[in-house]
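S1.2 Input.
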Amino acid sequence: MEPKIVGKRVKKLIEKNNISIKELASKLEISEEELIKKLEGEEEFFVSEVIIMTEIFNLDIKTVSQIFFSEETDEEKEENEKKMKL
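S1.3 Output.
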């Protein structure tokens, strides 16, 4: 999966769950700078980090699959369909 897309999706999770980058980086046991690189798509998330985020954000397997492994989430499909109708 494209790292920039995954980073964008994780940013949405961070905002939705009102967690700071500092707090998430701490829980992932990485530096804030490293997390920012991952959120910007400059680096990929490791599987171990995906597992930790699954627990932090209480994600089900379908959501994990959509965020980290699918080309387009249901939410993104809806947004794209709305844009096409305009």
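S1.4 Remarks. The first helix runs from residue 3 to 16.
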